[in-house]
Design a protein that fits this description.
By secondary structure, the chain is an alpha+beta fold. Helices cover 15% and strands 30% of the residues. The protein has one domain. It is globular and about 90 Å long.
Length: 427
């Protein structure tokens, strides 16, 4: 009898345990569903904030949707300090000495070049229409774009420590941050802008969470948590855009990428005035190895009167400005200018990615093979463009990505840069 009671008791306890186990599974399932629903709601709210009502929508051949949004309805004006802002439709001052660099120069570069086609770089969406006056083109953010990010909050933001530190490079920091660079730079003076003509390529990306870019940096403050940075150039970033297209981009931060700033128009800040160029949209054509070479010109400068930082693309497109109040150090001037390439290496334990920088070829290969920056200049306190003095170079590991500078009458100060990443000398 005792054995029977014991057996029944054990069965009851077993049944209770199974009941609570099933209840736990149901609870977990409900919690998971609630979590998914909560995430969807967060993503939708974020999309509603970013994607403003469009006057007109243009579908680009690459699958992007370009929304033509009234200039006064753009994301910049979500910022509380910009509620009553009067849009400045043109800068008060423009640096002197600007020349037409919206297409590849017809002048000979430093070494012999193959025959090439000179053609202005366009954005792919231009093939299917243009935005009306009084609007600006904004690349529409899709649900899948946001879902690729680590969180809704981090969407459109760089990771911390994305700035090269030329004077204090630490191999441990390189491995920790995962960012690698090949740059030229100037420091030790007050700078009020920078310019460059940047060779455009479509580098191969190894992992979807890696990127490759070529840009200029306008930097103010220390390399600590108060760093100010304005950045512009081209990039290939599958994580951000969902493809491997080469795209025009900008970035800004006033606290070293922690809580402020973003790419393009993915947060409030940059005020766009131009109706023809879309931040984050694909640019075409791109350069080909031993074939036609294409480049873009970017100029960023500080308007001496209003203090805003303006951006110009090519010789024809003044795109807009970053209001001076966004920054602390850059409200006055920049203390360092950098030009060059950056990649993210997601490989662990000191191994290297095969994500390419620039053309994916080393600087010594020269024109038509390696990527270049030419006619690099800074803007001085008199709002004049001038050649940089004391140009330095920096790369964390030259066997992976390298940089070589030069100077001549046609290209002014220039440098070749880049590399393949992983190779026999860069394991």
């Amino acid at each position: 009898m005792g054995d029977v009671h014991f057996s029944r008791g054990r069965a009851r306890r077993g049944a209770v345990l199974v009941f609570f186990w099933i209840l736990g599974l149901i609870s977990l399932s409900c919690a998971a569903r609630l979590s998914v629903e909560k995430q969807k709601l967060q993503v939708q709210k974020h999309l509603n904030r970013l994607n403003k009502p469009a006057v007109k929508t243009i579908e680009s051949p690459d699958g992007d949707f370009i929304d033509c949004v009234h200039i006064s309805h753009q994301p910049a004006f979500d910022h509380p300090y910009l509620k009553d802002h009067n849009i400045q439709m043109r800068p008060n001052y423009h640096p002197e000495g600007l020349f037409d660099v919206n297409k590849v120069s017809d002048e000979k570069p430093p070494i012999k070049q193959p025959k090439e086609h000179s053609a202005p770089i366009k954005q792919l969406w231009h093939m299917n229409g243009k935005c009306p006056e009084g609007t600006i083109p904004i690349r529409r953010t899709k649900e899948e774009d946001v879902l690729r990010a680590s969180s809704v909050k981090r969407y459109g933001r760089k990771k911390h420590r994305a700035i090269p530190k030329p004077r204090s490079a630490d191999p441990d920091l390189v491995n920790e941050s995962g960012h690698q660079h090949a740059i030229a730079y100037v420091e030790g003076d007050k700078y009020y802008g920078a310019k460059a003509t940047i060779n455009v390529w479509e580098p191969r990306i190894q992992q979807p969470n890696e990127f490759s870019l070529s840009q200029l940096w306008i930097l103010g403050g220390s390399f600590g948590e108060d760093l100010n940075s304005i950045e512009a150039g081209w990039q290939v970033s599958p994580d951000l855009y969902g493809d491997n297209n080469t795209r025009l981009f900008t970035y800004w931060t006033s606290d070293a990428y922690q809580a402020t700033g973003c790419y393009n128009l993915l947060c409030s800040g940059f005020i766009q005035i131009n109706s023809e160029i879309a931040m984050g949209a694909s640019i075409s054509p791109v350069s080909a190895y031993r074939n036609s070479q294409y480049d873009i010109s970017i100029l960023v400068w500080k308007d001496p009167k209003e203090g805003h930082w303006w951006m110009q693309f090519g010789n024809d497109y003044v795109l807009g400005y970053w209001p001076s109040f966004l920054f602390s150090y850059l409200a006055d001037s920049a203390s360092m200018i950098e030009w060059g390439g950056e990649v993210v290496n997601s490989e662990p334990d000191g191994h290297h990615t095969s994500t390419q920088m620039g053309s994916g070829h080393f600087p010594e290969e020269g024109f038509g093979k390696s990527s270049y920056f030419r006619n690099i200049q800074v803007v001085d306190e008199s709002n004049n463009l001038k050649a940089p003095k004391g140009l330095g170079t920096f790369t964390e590991q030259s066997n992976c990505y390298d940089v070589q500078t030069g100077s001549n009458g046609d290209w002014g100060h220039y440098f070749y840069y880049g590399g393949p990443g992983k190779n026999p000398n860069c394991p």
